[in-house]
Amino acid sequence: MQNRIKQKLIEIEQQHHIQILYACESGSRAWGFPSPNSDYDVRFIYVHPLDKYLSIDNPSSHLTFPIDDELDLHGWDLKKTLTLIRKSNTTPFEWLQSPIVYQQNAPIAEQLWQLCSDFFNARGNIHHYLGIAKSALQSSERQQIGIKKLFYVLRPLLCAKWCLEKQQIAPMTMGPLLTLLPSDLQQQINDLIALKATMPESKSITIDSHIVTFIEQSMTEITKGTHAITERHFKADKLEHFFRQTLIYFK
After folding, report:
1. Residues 28-50 pLDDT 10s
2. Which is higher by pLDDT, 112 or 251?
3. If you placed Cys at 159, which of 129, 163, 167, 215 could pair as Cys (CB 3.0 to 4.6 Å)?
C-alpha cells in the first residue's frame, strides 16, 4: 500500500504541477488504534510555482480526490496551511507530527513544525478537542458504544486535557496521551486498542464504568479549567517570511 500511496503522490505532482512538501497518514493508523478495515487517510501540503501566486486568479487552496475502499487523499496549499497555523488550527499541528510520513522535504517540514509551537493557542485547541469529544459522546449510549466511537471520544478528550495541563500542542499519537490516565485505566485502554485491531470499527462494546466516570469528570474539569485561559491572537510576520522564502526556493 505504501508503494501505491507514493506513486499516487508522484502522479498528483505531475498532473497538478505542484511540489508536495509533506505527505503523511492522518487517521487511526497514525493515532495508534487502527481496525482491520481502517482505510488510509493521506494528507499532504503542497506549493504552486511562484507565478501562480502572482496571477490574477488565486491558485487552488486544496486538492480532493475520490475516496475508494482503501485510500482517502486530501491536500492543502502551503498558503492555506500557514493561514490555519496562524489560527492555531489543530489539523496542521497533527499532520506535522504524524509518525507515518510518505514524502517530505525534511528541512521545510521541520521549519513548519517549529512554527506551530509559536502559534499555539491553548484555549482554542481545548475548545476544538472538547467539542469533538462531546459530539461523539452525545451520539452514543455511554457504556454501550461502538469501539470506533469510544476512541473518537477518548482521544480528543485526552488532547484537550493535555493542552490544559501542559499548555502545549497535544501529541498526535495515543501513547503519550495515555499517560494522563490513572494506571488501571491505561491498561484497560491498551487492552481496548488491542481489541480494536481485531474487530470491525462498527462493532459495539460494553465499557467499564470507571472509564465512563473518567470521561464525564474530565469533561467537567476541562470545561471549568478553560475559563481561566486567555485567548491568544497572532501576527502573521513569521509565517509570511517563511512563505516568501519557500516560494523563492522552489521558483
Report:
1. 999 999 988 889 999 999 999 99
2. 112
3. 129
- Let me know: does 44 contact 75? Beta carbons within 8 Å: yes
Task: Parse the chain into domains and list their residue ranges.
Answer: 2-119, 122-226
Nine-digit cell at 151? 476512541
CATH number of 2-119: 3.30.460.10
- Which of 5-37 are b and which e, b meaning 16 or more Cβ less than 10 Å from the residue's Cβ? beebbeebeeeeebbbbbbbbbbbbbbbbbbee
Categorise residue 19: left if φ over 0, alpha if ψ from -120 to 50, beta otherwise.
beta
Q: How far is CA 226 from the centre of its chain?
A: 21
Task: Report the chain's C-alpha Rg in angstroms.
Answer: 19
Task: Count the residues in the chain.
Answer: 251
Residues 6 or more apart in contact with residue 141 via CB below 8 angstroms: none
